[in-house]
Specification:
mainly alpha; 7 helices; 78% helix; transmembrane helix
Length: 184
C-alpha cells in the first residue's frame, strides 16, 4: 500500500517537474542538434549563432526581471497590503527574490558566454560543458538547468506576482458580497 502511494507521488512529482520546466525541451533540441553535427565548421557556426541568441535572451531576461522587481517594489508599498492575506506578501516577496536572482544569473551567464566567445578554446570548452560524457551526443542535464534557470525564475516570478495580485483583489469577496469594502 505505502509503495503504491510513493509511486503515485513520485509520478505526480515527475509530471509537475515536466510542466514547470517545459521550455527546456526547446533548449535541449537546439543543443543536441549542435552536438550531433559532424562537420566542425558548421558546428562552430551553429554554436556561435546559438550563443548570440542566448545572449539576447539573457539581455531580455535582465530587462524584464528588473522591470518586474521594480513593479513588485512599488506594489509592496500599497496601503491595501496591510489588510491583505499574508499569502499576498509571501507571493510578492517571492517574486522579488526570483526576479533578482534571475537578473543576477542572467548577468553572470552572459559574461560567461561572452568570455567563451573570445577565448581561442571557447567552443571546445562550451561543447564539453554541454555534452554528456559517452558515445551518444546528448546534452548534459546540469548545463541545461543552469542555462535555463534565469528564464524559469523569471517565469516563476511573474506567476507569483499574478497569484499575489489575484489574492489581493479576490480575498475581500471571500467574506462578503461585492460592495464598497470589496474595492482595493
Amino acid at each position: 500500500m505505502a509503495g503504491g502511494v510513493r509511486k503515485r507521488v513520485a509520478n505526480v512529482a515527475k509530471v509537475a517537474g515536466w510542466i514547470t520546466t517545459m521550455p527546456w525541451i526547446c533548449l535541449q533540441a537546439a543543443i543536441e542538434q549542435i552536438l550531433q553535427e559532424q562537420d566542425v565548421i558548421v558546428q562552430s557556426k551553429q554554436l556561435n549563432d546559438w550563443r548570440k541568441r542566448k545572449n539576447k535572451e539573457l539581455e531580455m531576461v535582465t530587462f524584464a526581471g528588473t522591470l518586474i522587481a521594480s513593479a513588485v517594489t512599488g506594489s509592496i508599498q500599497w496601503s491595501a497590503l496591510g489588510a491583505a492575506h499574508w499569502l499576498v506578501s509571501a507571493a510578492w516577496y517571492s517574486t522579488l527574490l526570483f526576479s533578482l536572482v534571475s537578473v543576477i544569473m542572467a548577468f553572470y551567464l552572459s559574461i560567461l558566454l561572452t568570455n567563451l566567445s573570445i577565448n581561442n578554446d571557447g567552443d571546445s570548452i562550451l561543447l564539453k560543458a554541454l555534452c554528456r560524457s559517452g558515445r551518444q551526443k546528448k546534452s548534459r542535464w546540469t548545463s541545461l538547468f543552469a542555462l535555463q534557470m534565469p528564464i524559469m525564475l523569471l517565469s516563476y516570478a511573474l506567476m507569483m506576482y499574478i497569484v499575489g495580485l489575484s489574492l489581493l483583489v479576490i480575498r475581500p469577496l471571500w467574506h462578503e458580497p461585492w460592495g464598497n469594502n470589496s474595492i482595493v
